[in-house]
Amino acid sequence: MKETTTKKAQRWRKKILESGVDLDMNPMVDMAFLLLTFFMLTTTLTRPFAMELIMPAEDKQEGERPAIKASRVLVLIPYKEDTVLYYQGLPEGDFEKLLINDVKQTENFFTAFKNSVKDPVIFIKPTETAPYETVVHTIDALNNHGLNRYALDELNDQETKFLKT
């Protein structure tokens, strides 16, 4: 079998063996572990992004809901992609005030509503066909305007009948 090392490489090996140089790898390994622990401790880990929801206590019965003034209530109905139906006041079966708005164009409406009503209450009632993104965009828009008092609810019978027509 042919030896593949050159004469120059053989001379270097011979010099290293003759000089008695002993390479100690411990300091390099120590530095590697020190750097590793330093970077592990100084990096910020990604925090999980979750929406905080406050749910009502379950011991209350259906009939014990607190009374809310109709002038403080805004009902948002995420309907289709980037479309939100909304009306102000409690649902009484009269949906003449039902308006259609684009999710991205609600900036002026939310600002005006927040300025006109003291301590507003908002109900978000997504339809079954409403995309998840539309509901999230609606909640994000509310949070951006400081409207933090909202609740997710189901459509009542009157709203469902009106939307089917």
Descriptive report:
The protein has a five-stranded mixed sheet, covered by helices on one side. The chain is an alpha/beta fold and 165 residues long. It is rod-shaped. The model has no long low-confidence stretch (mean pLDDT 77). The longest helix has 17 residues, at 26-42. It has helices at residues 7-19, 26-42, 107-116, 132-144, 157-164, and strands spanning 73-80, 83-88, 99-102, 121-124, 150-152. It is built from five helices and five strands; from the N terminus they run ααβββαβαβα. A hairpin with a 2-residue loop joins strand 1 (73-80) and strand 2.
Task: Summarize the biggest pleated sheet.
Answer: 5 strands, mixed
Order of helices and strands: HHEEEHEHEH
Structural class: alpha/beta
Mean pLDDT: 77
Q: Give the amount of beta strand, in percent.
A: 15-25%
Put simply, the count of helices is 5
What's the N-to-C terminus distance?
A: 91 Å
Low-pLDDT ranges:
none
Major beta sheet, strand line-up: 3-2-1-4-5
- 3D shape: rod-shaped
Brief overview:
The chain has helices at residues 7-19, 26-42, 107-116, 132-144, 157-164, and strands spanning 73-80, 83-88, 99-102, 121-124, 150-152. The chain is of the alpha/beta class and 165 residues long.
Write the layout of secondary structure elements.
Blueprint: H1 7-19, H2 26-42, E1 73-80, E2 83-88, E3 99-102, H3 107-116, E4 121-124, H4 132-144, E5 150-152, H5 157-164
Parallel strand pairs: 1-4, 4-5
Antiparallel strand pairs: 1-2, 2-3
Notable traits:
165 residues, alpha/beta, 5-stranded mixed β-sheet, 37% helix
